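Session log. Operator J.P. requested a structure for one protein chain; no other inputs attached. Running the standard single-chain path with token output.
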Amino acid sequence: MSIGAAILLSFGASAAHAGNNNPTVYKAVRQDVSKPLRDILAALPPDAPSGPEIEGVPVPNILLKHDSRLSAFVPDYRHIQRHPLNVPAPSADIAFNAITSTTSGCGCLPPDTNGDVSDQHYIQWVNSAYQIFDKASGAPNPSTLTPKQGNTFFTGFGGKCETTNAGDPVALWDARAQRWVMSQFVTTTPYAQCVAVSTTSDPLGTYYRYEFDWPNFGDYPKMGVWTDDSGTQDAYLLTTHEFDASNAFVGASFIALERDKMLNGQPATMLR
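Structure written below.
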């Protein structure tokens, strides 16, 4: 079954993107196979020092502090549980300091913290930079002793995926395929989603790389794996909030990428 047919059967007439019940198929405008990421990182110049950390602006917790002025919009949470039940919390197997909004080099608020864990690694991606850690010890991998810019996944790829580093990242472990999927967006026209799929379970190895362009700006992308043993469900699913050229919000998009093709480095399309 094709990716489009599978999704339409599952979701019926729901819109694949804002205001449109007729999904559009887009081919990847660029694809290749990268050099090993460890070699790309080894060739980078020394890291520049990070600046001082910037404290964020506190966000009021309106859910815990009932305000009559907001009662028309916020439920009354005055009677929620406020005290522990004397049930001990599970202890953490391991804890370590990872990337902050400052050490990412962006200083962005919110930092759009993202990450996933495999059998051996944890990868954290904070807006514009990522770092790879050993799952057992929490130690940073020797290739990423400091955070590395997100677009190093696309070094040598060409186009805006290589030259821009806009963030809103996705670090996803595809457990069924034993592959890493790393992605971030392009915020200037042509708007795009850049996707790198590891060729093995090694996050520092080679990647199949893709650039998918579309007409609107897809903000806050989130990705998941949609698959089963039958083979009828086989996609990387992406949701975004879309804005047009005037920066007007036009709705949410539901996008499917051809997972089976991308796992094999073949030409791939997206259904949007």
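Operator note: Residues 37 and 79 are 52 Å apart (CA to CA).
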